[in-house]
Known about the structure:
Layout: H1 2-14, H2 16-33, H3 35-48, E1 63-71, E2 74-85, H4 89-114, E3 117-119, E4 130-132, H5 133-136, H6 140-143, H7 154-164, E5 177-182, H8 185-197, E6 201-208, E7 225-231, H9 234-239, E8 245-252, H10 253-256, H11 261-274
Parallel strand pairs: 5-8
Antiparallel strand pairs: 1-2, 3-4, 6-7, 7-8
Helix pairs in contact: 1-11, 3-8, 4-8
Amino acid sequence: IFMRYRQLIQSRLAIKVDYQKYQKMWKEKMEEDGPESLARLKAKCYELRNGRNSWRGVVVRQMTSQYLTSESGEVRWKRVGPGTPVHSLDQLYAAAAGCDIILRKKVKDWAMKTRGRFPLQKGEGHAREFVVWEEVRDDPEVACKVRFGHLKSVERAIEKLLRSYDSDVSRLIDVCRQSIVFDTISEITDFLQLIGDDQDIKIERIKNRYAPSYKAINSAGYRDVNISLRIITQETIKLGIDTHICEVQLQLKCFSELKTDEGHKRYVQFRNARGE
């Protein structure tokens, strides 16, 4: 127990500089955007959660209506009840791969309407740069350098299953994920309005890490809005992936610019010590 406690203390000390850096930026950003922007964001999250003040106590699972089975040596789809949790990691990743293409198209469309930004691929030693999608989408030379999200690695998924979810595959709801970067809290709130009005989207959960009550030490000071959602269209229904939950992260540009590879390594050390 003592060694475990010592490891936790050391890992928290390792992220102290990152935590202080993010906290300093957060205070500056709040002075710039003002309390009204936070209040609007909180109200919009409350609305999209159907009147829930937080996500605590809400367990969201990956569900399916069909399974691949091997009966009598023949592999085929078997229909099951719509509320059946996914228990196969292979099936989860197959659905995530299908959703990845569709979600990427969605975030591009959303970014076009909200002046959302995406990061550019940069060489080692170069500062992080984020471009407004509306301004670069018709420029092939720049657009091809935009870095979109990728599926969570299988190694990290298994690690998370064993550490946090007691091997329950249905709890993995962030295998397919994308992120959009914004300049202000108000832009994030406007984006939430847009996504809430999208008839193709069913929001399952929203985590608002910009809320004053959020304990930022749990993420080494980093903050964002995290949306768990399903894309329900004729295409996804036909493919059998309309039940798959994806993740969209809404980030502030000032926070994303502070990210470094070294800081991420320290956060991984912190996360490992906490068993997450």
